[in-house]
Amino acid sequence: MARVFVITGPSGVGKGTLIRNLLSRVSGLELSVSATTRKPRPGEEDGVHYHFLTDEQFEERVRDGAFVEHADYSGRRYGTLRSELERRTAGGVPVVLEIEVQGARQVRETLPDAVQVFIVPPSEEALRERLVGRGTDSSDDVERRLKVAEEELTARDEFQYQVVNDRLEDAVEELERIVQSELPTG
User: Fold this and answer.
1) Which CATH number does the domain housing residue 165 bear?
2) Could you tell me which residues are annotated as the binding site?
3) What was the pLDDT predicted at 10?
4) How many structural domains comprise the chain?
5) Which of 3, 42, 74, 83 is the most buried (most CB within 10 A)?
6) In which element (H, E) is residue 127 found?
7) What b-and-e string marks burial along 172-185, b requiring 16 or more CB atoms within 10 Å of the CB?
8) What's the predicted TM-score (pTM) here?
9) CB–CB of 10/121 below 8 Å?
10) Distances (CA, A) of 89 to 50, 58, 85, 94, 110
């Protein structure tokens, strides 16, 4: 089975940007498309950015055991569909999961060989600026996400690797180094 890379950290830390850069640098690496109950943001497509599900559809999949991991985050539900992951790894394709901390903990239980990377913001203020700056959340949502982030940051030492996302290029290089070191050679 191919390698699974779990990339986690608080909302707004830049996981998506780092992963986009990583995917452009590491040939053959693919991003697993997560499922969510949140509404699509402008420009997001179902099946490309997320599998957008209703609460009822999500709950049905939970009952059916269709998720490798799933979590509630900021009033929404997110999860990694087992079929999405198995389709790629069975074909020998290494996969990146961009998930929240509680989901990363579940993956650690179900896939103990997965490589776990925690993305750390340079400061709480930088995280606040990123969340406000992306303009996708209300001020209440930003405050809720910051409160969750504060709790999540206490979990950073649980993770095999930590990457501080201060200067984007440095963080991408560190993430690429980690991934390359964990991929089979030859």
Assistant:
1) 3.40.50.300
2) 9-16
3) 87
4) 1
5) 3
6) helix 124-133
7) bebbbebbeebeee
8) 0.86
9) yes
10) 19, 23, 6, 6, 15
Range of 44's domain?
A: 4-182
Q: What is the DSSP string of 40-56?
A: PPTT--BTTTBEE--HH
The predicted pLDDT at position 186 comes to 52
Per the annotation, binding residues for ATP are: 9-16
- What residue type is 176 in one-letter code? E
d(CA 10, CA 116): 14
What backbone torsions phi and psi does residue 73 show, to the nearest 5 degrees?
-145, 120
Mean pLDDT of the chain: 90
Instruction: Round to the nearest angstrom and report the end-to-end CA distance of the chain.
Output: 15
Token pair listed for 167: 């200067």
Give the number of other CB atoms < 10 A from CB of residue 100: 22
Separation of alpha carbons 80 and 50, rounded Å: 10
